[in-house]
């Protein structure tokens, strides 16, 4: 637990420095690094299950999917979705060419499908965090939307851990993640809603005008629920791969995918919800 707390504090210091002292470019590159690590570990889990993704090729294109649309929109005012669609198309073409030369006939579909799954499930989904920066006219206020989403999603897990240890009685998904309980999930959602309100209330001047404390409170609940589901999906993948953690380079937490797991599904959900209230 001490290692987890220490690692969490260090990671939040890095986030604060990148987001508030350096600016949007640093935030995008930090997200790109986390995406790259998560995608690489995701491919590692798939390999443990007998899949054959093009690991290096997929992660390179995944990193491009995070960084290039941001700068294309910044300098050429091109829509990020168009660039990402092009990257996915290039990946499909390139994988089809490679599997004919580098894979046996019974492995070709596995390589194609697993490479694309890693590209879409990790960098494509996390790229919605980058798109949030571009939602308001001021990138600094877009960064606050990203911070709000990260806080409400990640602290759901913290609340679930604390409430689960104190009050947990009923397992939520015993076959996938036996330590997670319904009581813990409820506590995690309550903490997420409280922080969603507190952040938008006490720092309201730093958020876009459309994102009031009321919306910060109301939208925290669906984000928290989706974050729990997203975390359970990663737990399922690790169980299928017979792995406790996706990696080991973050003491007390595990790997990059263990860090971003709850953001994978909550990032596009948050982007959609923000788009509905603008």
Fraction of helical residues: over 70%
Distance between the termini: 40 Å
Sheet of most strands: 2 strands, antiparallel
C-alpha geometry:
globular
Strands in their spatial order, largest beta sheet: 1-2
Taken as a percent bin, the fraction of beta residues is under 5%
- Please provide the ordered H/E string of secondary-structure elements: HHHHHHEEHHHH
Q: Given the structure, what is the number of helices?
A: 10
Average predicted confidence as pLDDT: 90
The Rg value, from CA coordinates, equals 19 Å
Number of extended strands: 2
Number of domains: 1
Instruction: List the quaternary state of the chains.
Output: single chain
The residue ranges in which pLDDT falls below 50 over 5 or more consecutive positions are none
Structural class: mainly alpha
């Amino acid at each position: 637990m001490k290692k987890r707390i220490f690692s969490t504090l260090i990671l939040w210091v890095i986030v604060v420095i990148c987001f508030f002292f350096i600016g949007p470019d640093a935030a995008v590159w930090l997200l790109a690094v986390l995406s790259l690590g998560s995608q690489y570990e995701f491919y590692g889990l798939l390999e443990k299950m007998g899949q054959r993704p093009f690991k290096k090729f997929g992660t390179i294109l995944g990193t491009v999917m995070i960084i290039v649309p941001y700068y294309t929109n910044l300098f050429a005012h091109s829509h990020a979705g168009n660039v990402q669609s092009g990257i996915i198309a290039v990946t499909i073409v390139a994988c089809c060419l490679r599997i004919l030369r580098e894979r046996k006939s019974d492995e070709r579909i596995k390589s194609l499908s697993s490479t694309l799954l890693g590209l879409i499930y990790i960098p494509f989904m996390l790229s919605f965090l980058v798109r949030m920066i571009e939602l308001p006219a001021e990138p600094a206020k877009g960064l606050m939307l990203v911070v709000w989403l990260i806080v409400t999603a990640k602290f759901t897990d913290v609340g679930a851990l604390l409430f689960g240890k104190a009050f947990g009685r009923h397992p939520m998904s015993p076959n996938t993640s036996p330590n997670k309980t319904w009581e813990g999930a409820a506590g995690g959602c309550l903490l997420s809603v409280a922080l969603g309100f507190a952040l938008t209330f006490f720092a309201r001047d730093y958020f876009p005008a459309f994102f009031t404390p009321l919306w910060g409170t109301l939208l925290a609940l669906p984000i928290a629920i989706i974050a729990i589901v997203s975390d359970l999906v990663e737990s399922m993948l690790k169980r299928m791969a017979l792995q406790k953690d996706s990696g080991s380079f973050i003491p007390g937490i595990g790997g990059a995918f263990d860090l971003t797991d709850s953001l994978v599904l909550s990032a596009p959900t948050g982007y959609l919800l923000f788009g509905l209230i603008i």
